[in-house]
Amino acid sequence: MEIGIFRTNICTHQDKNDVIQAIQQHFNTSNCSIDIEDCDKVMRVVAGPAIVEENDIILFVSKMGYQCEKLD
Fold first, then answer.
1. In this structure, how many other beta carbons lie within 10 angstroms of the beta carbon of residue 22?
2. CA distances to 13, 46, 71 from 5, in Å
3. Cα(23)–Cα(61) distance, integer angstroms
4. What angle is formed at CA 42 by the lines to CA 41 and CA 47, rounded to 5 degrees?
5. Could you tell me the sign of the dihedral formed by the alpha carbons of 30, 35, 69, 25, in that order?
6. From residue 26, how far is each of 10, 29, 71 by CA, in Å?
7. Residue-by-residue pLDDT tens, the chain, 72 positions
8. For the chain, first and last CA: distance in Å?
C-alpha cells in the first residue's frame, strides 16, 4: 500500500488524534489524516519508505475499538 483510504467510525477530535498518533508510532507512515466531518469518517494513510499493508492498518484500528474498512 502506498496510500490507503478507509471508512471508520472515528467521531471526536480526541479519538482522531489518538488514532493518528498510534498509527504514526506503530507504522512507518509519512502522513495520516482523518476527516471526521465526512459521512464515512475517511482515514487516509500514506506509507513511508517501508511497505504498510492495508489489513495491518484495519486490524490495528479495530483493536483500538473502532470500525475500519477499506473504502473503494
1. 15
2. 19, 9, 6
3. 8
4. 145
5. positive
6. 18, 9, 22
7. 699 999 999 999 999 999 999 999 999 999 999 999 999 999 999 998 888 999 999 999 999 999 999 998
8. 14
Going by the DSSP 8-state scheme, the letter that residue 27 receives in this structure is S
- Cα separation, 64 vs 30, in Å, equals 21
What domains are defined for the chain? 3-70 (3.30.70.100)
Q: What would the grid cell of residue 62 be?
A: 479495530
- The length of the chain in residues reads 72
Helices 54-63 and 13-26: crossing angle in degrees, nearest 10, is: 130
CA–CA distance, 7 with 53 (Å, rounded to integer): 16
Q: What share of the chain is helix, strand, coil (3-state, %, to 5)?
A: 35, 30, 40
